[in-house]
Specification:
231 residues, single chain, 10-stranded antiparallel sheet, alpha+beta
Amino acid sequence: MKNRTLAQLVEYFCPAVLIIVATAILAMVFSSSAAIGVRGAAFGIALFAIAILGGSLKWGLMLGDTSVKRELFKRALMKLWSQEIVPFDTSKHPFIRAMRLRPLPASLDQTCWSFDIDCDGYPGYESLGFIHFQGPVISMAMVSGVRGRWHLDCYVRATCTPVGTTFYVESVDGPLKSWLAPGSVIGVDLESGNEGLGLDSIGLVRMFRSDIPAVLKNVGAWRVEADQKPA
């Protein structure tokens, strides 16, 4: 997302840079004519100011929490969450094969972990994923929005068969259909300082110990909480 945001920043303010460069070149070309030089410089500075103002407005709208942006974000999430995943065969993936051979520590039970999710195209918004281990049951959730103002959340709960530190999904319930389905395989790396999660719908991600989010404490709802109007 950082690379995309930088590209958008360049896109918004590039016209202003081009205008000031062109103004400097024209000033040099017409330096022999004071009147033309002054008028050209004034015109160029005016265009530069307009371009800066336009770029700033676009940048502010992109980062801001506007009604239109929020609605587009919500629609994107709803579409993502409702798409049913078809699990890949990950049995030969090096990560999954390695995790199958590791012993499953009892300390993993009743723990919750979080991981970052890229909100590409929606700067100013953030998304976190969560995974909660409860014996053979694994619950996962995605929480997205603006911290401290509003969020949307969605969950899925799966009954699994553990093999080492991999979990083979037998059945699922919950509206977050794009992450888990019967046949999915969840790999968990518990190496201290390098804890990670592997899942075909998400990829390989670092995970960190976390409190249990409200959506997983109150499994059974798909909600929009504290849905305030944008400032």
